Amino acid sequence: MKKKIAFFIPSLKIGGAERVVVNIVKYLDRDKYQIRLIVLDYNGPFKKEVPNDIEIINLGRKRVRESILPITKEIIKFKPDYVFSTLGYLNFLLILLIKVLQIKTKIIVRESSTPSKYINQLPIIKKKLYSYLYKSLYPKADMIIAQCNSMQEDLVNNFNIDKNKVATIYNPIDIESIKFKMKQKNTFNINNVNIVAVGRLVYAKGYDILLHSISLLSEKYPNLQLHILGDGPLKEDLIQLTNDLNLNKHVNFLGFTENPYPYIRSADLYVLSSRWEGFPNTLLEALACGTNVVATNCKSGPKEIIGDNNYGYLAKSEDPISLYEVMCMALNEKKDTQKRAEDFSINKIIKDYESLFDSIIDG
């Protein structure tokens, strides 16, 4: 008999967690699992990537707190062998619901960030609340998936979680899909030094740090062009900083694009300037595109992906000068990045997920 899995996500908008869930449901063995994707708000570009044989339940809710009753009804109706969730506030709710309902369903949560780093930047009241929720609810999950070893250590050391309850599974990437999409044309001038960064314009991504580094790098490379793909709440602040640093001729805010891969493939360098991460999908995708990569050695993920500068280049976290120096180095030496990307192929990682699911169910 097939095992029933209910995957919960807030929406199908572009995001690292959403991409991972879509990749998992696309490649899970249909002979072993009956899959239901339950979405709070069924909107976003990933809608068209969900296979037709996946049953989708749209709860039609914008907020998690509005979804408590619909989620409860779906769990009781579907009677899943286990529930899978991958974003903090939804993780908290589902752990609580499963325990309150006192049903046999196993609850698996995938952590989407480095909790201690995320919590530390919150206002004091939220900081105390989130710390309490992690420490009181996460230990009640049947299994927690960390995206890398560093994240596992963060959960165990800072939130009193049993190490045996935290499994590390790297994020999967669909390499064949990336290779197909990256062949589309982009508009880069090949006579320029083109650097690309991709992600939401938020504090965690460290674009202010990157702009200060680009200010230094543009003096060495007058034909330098930084292309930032993404939108977010800090866009106006970053545009103002660009003006203040006299970088208008060197920085292009291209906004959100569903297909960033042609830009990444054609770039001389892909840069990840984050203050913290979960396990950066865009860095994995840049490796798959065969592009030289630079990343800050932030918590968590980049060092486990790049190694000791084996597959790219690591700069000190939150250090514009270090980032500048490492970008200079990377622009003069090419690494073999595509070989490393194979380690994160969906065909490999999906086996890790299936092994974990089966061990929890059978256990």
Automatic annotation (TrEMBL):
A single MF term (Gene Ontology): glycosyltransferase activity
Domain Glycosyl transferase family: 181-338
Source superkingdom: Bacteria
Gene3D superfamilies: Glycogen Phosphorylase B
InterPro entries the UniProt entry points to: Glyco_trans_1 (IPR001296), Glyco_trans_4-like_N (IPR028098)
Ranges for domain Glycosyltransferase subfamily 4-like N-terminal: 14-176
PANTHER family, A to Z: GLYCOSYLTRANSFERASE
Listed name of the protein: Glycosyl transferase
